[in-house]
Each structure stands twice: as structure tokens, then as C-alpha cells.
Amino acid sequence: MTPPDRMHAISPETRAVVDDVLEYARRRALYEDIPLDKPLRPSDLARLAPRTVTPEGIGARRAIALFENVLAPACISTDHPGYLSFIPSAPSKAALAFDVVVSASAVYAGSWMEGAGAVFAENEVLHWLAREFGLPEGAGGVFVQGGTIGNLSALVTARDAARRRLRAADRPMPARWLVVCSAEAHSSIASAAAVMDVDVLPVPVDDAGRLHGDAVARALDEHGDAVFAVVATGGTTNFGIVDDIASIADVTAARGVWLHVDGAYGLAAMLVPEARGAFAGVEHADSVIVDPHKWLFAPFDACALIYRNPSLALAAHTQKAEYLDTLTDTPDWNPSDLGIQLTRRARGLPLWFSLATHGTEHYRAAIAYGIDLAARIADDIRARDEVSLVRDPQLSVVVFRRHGWTMADYKAWSDRLLDDQRAFVVPSSHAGEPVLRFAIISPLTTYELLVDVLDSLR
Ligand SMILES: *Cc1c(COP(=O)(O)O)cnc(C)c1O
After folding, report:
1. CA-closest candidate to residue 233, choices 271, 307, 182
2. Quick one: 323 and 296 in the same domain?
3. Are residue 353 and residue 371 in the same domain, yes or no?
4. Would you say the pTM of this structure is higher than 0.90?
5. Count of the separate structural domains present in the chain
6. Which residues does ligand 1 sit against, CB inside 6 Å?
């Protein structure tokens, strides 16, 4: 019996499909002027791209044309230099091209047995990051989908470790587990707590928005064994604020409580020598995360999750099943056992390839560029009458207000900016006040572009 192999056979038709797709990928990867683009309504898309999933198929040519001409332009390009909302993405060309190779290679990167070469290369990157963060030899981890899964995986490990510690000491389990973080911590911490059915204890921050050890100490003294982890933020998403990690680490170390550093956005700045000082104390963390798809110039989606002592993660996360025994009963390094996942893409490889290609110094310079640009445009904002800074930028996020504007004014301005395809800057709010925010990641974002956006606020 011959298999119905039209989808897999190497025929002239298959070659044409692969060529067409790769040719489009190549075109998109090398766009000189990345279009900003914007979303369409469902009804518009239904009209422009009617029924594409059919019994006989519409053919590769038509499907690619539809994607290129209708669907892709209905997605905002997060790598556009004027994309300044949320956290932009700015994958290096090497990284995004290599992402295609990862797909073409059909690597299963959950276990060493199947993905040794890929896992080895990913570990090269993780160990380099661990050294940059000051973590000891023996630290290691895994690339998971994003910061949300990274934080959840780390906190699950932390609670598991706390349970084991209490059990070993013959102390009672708390009625409710608590995770301590600052009121400015990312929403994914509350989300992780909800998934884990634990409570979050937000601790007050100082006037600059930073969490300090003394406030954490008070929380720990009050709640004792119930606290299984303290989360310090290495660069808040909204403002780029880095907590006083060193003083927090003193407190967690003295009480034997797990310290997790959420550096999804900001920890990349530790690669810049002048910015390193702000992160003092990270070297004491039990776990850290940083998202390569944010400020390490990798494509979506990847979070580097690193543990000081990976064996604690193995104990918490290894999935047990008879069909997996050949994988889990070995001393091999199996990335799936360190986080919440089983099957996994070798999602660290695009970063590995780009780092191998360009070297680490280029990364330091590209991150420093964003920090410098944020400082420069902040000076500009200080010098203008109609706008003012909400806070001095610490990393590459600049938050400011336009005097006299309501949220409706901000929204109308933001819509116009996108309609004109100049930039994507959505209003945000801080302490009830509507504000604007530039998040600068891309080395292609220029001072002139930002000045142009500021000029449009006059
Ligand atoms: C973006 C971000 C997250 C969530 O990361 P995802 O990759 O979007 O899941 C968590 N913490 C901080 C500080 C972030 O900036």
C-alpha cells in the first residue's frame, strides 16, 4: 500500500511549496523598511481572506499570497523601530533566520537522549548568562516559552523545596502558602499564584518604586514558614525599576527563604558594565529568569530560566510515566525536567546562533544603546513645556505625561499615530493618571524617530 504522501514526498510540487515559503521568509527577514501595519476587524478579515480551510486545500501559492497581502499586514510588526509599546521585539537577523532552521530540523529538545546537540548549545548560552549574573558553577536551567511560564516554574520549584525543608525539620505545613513580592511586580506573579492556589503578599515600595530588604524582613517575620519565596524584580515592565536585590538577598539568605529574581525584561541590562551595579545581589538568587525575546534580540518565544541548584527543579518537575522511564532514570541533562513542559522546541537555539555569530560584545553594545537612548530622550522631555517625566528612567523605559490631556486625548492621538503608520505608542496609566510610555529595545529605533513622536504631542 503506498502512503498518501503528497504532504511529505520530495516531489516537484513539494519543492515549489518549500521554495515559495522560504522565499517569502527571506523577503520578510530582509525588509529594508519594516511596515508597522495594524489590526483589522474580524468582518474585514472574513471578507478579505474568506474560507481558507477547505477539503481540497487552496494551494500554497494562494495561501502565502493571502498571508503576505492580507493576514501579515493585519498584525502590528513588533520589530518596527517605532513600536514602542509594551515590550517590543527586535530579533537579530541571524537569530530570526536560525529560527527557520530550528523548525526544519525536527529536534526534540526535551531530553538529552534525543536532542543532545541542541541541548548542549542551549546550555552554552544558559551557562554564559549564569556567569554574567554571578551565579555559581553548577547553576543551570532551561529555555521555556516565556516569562510567565518561567516565573511559574521557578515558584513551583520554590514551594516544593519549602515543603521538603519543613517536612525534614518536622515542622507543620502552613494552612496557606505565601509568595512575597513588591506591589510593582509583574502580573504573571499573581497569575502563577492563582495557578498554584497560593496567596500573594504585596510589600510596599519606596518613593522610587523599589522593594527593599527591611520591608521584606517585616513580612517574613510576620508570616514565618508560610512564605515559600520572595520575588524581586530586575526591571519592572512599566518603569524599568530594579528592586534593591542585595538587601532583599541578605534577608532571604538569613531566613533560608527562596529568592527568585524576575528579570524577564530588565536583567539583560546586567550585560552592560555601567548598568551592572543596579543588579547587585542577583548572584544570591535561587532562581532567575530573563526573556531573550525581549532585550536579548531573539524571536518569540523564549525565556531563560536558571536555577542556582537545578536538582531542586528536577525534584519538583520531573514527570513520571512508564513510557518515560528510559529518559528519566539517567543522569542525563533533560531540559523538560526543569520546568512546566514535556515536549519542547529548541527555543534557545536562535539566541545561541546569533551569539555564536556576533559574539557577546555586540550584545552589550546593543543593550547599552537602548539605555543611552532612553536617557537622551528623557533629557528632551525635560526640556519641553507640554510634557514631563513621571520618573527618571533607570533602564530603557521612559514614562511621561502630556499636560492637560485626558485619556480620550491620548487615545485619539495614539490612534492617529498608528493610522499614519508613524509609531505605535499606546497610552498607559500610573496611579490613576493617564501617561505615555516609550519602551526602547530595537537598535533601529533612532533619536530622530522619538523626537518626531514628541513633536506630534505639541
Ligand atoms: C514580560 C514580563 C513577564 C512575562 O513574560 P512573558 O514572556 O510575556 O510571559 C514577567 N515579568 C516581567 C518583569 C516582564 O517584563
Report:
1. 182
2. yes
3. no
4. yes
5. 3
6. 87, 146-148, 151, 186, 188, 233, 237, 262, 264-265, 291, 303
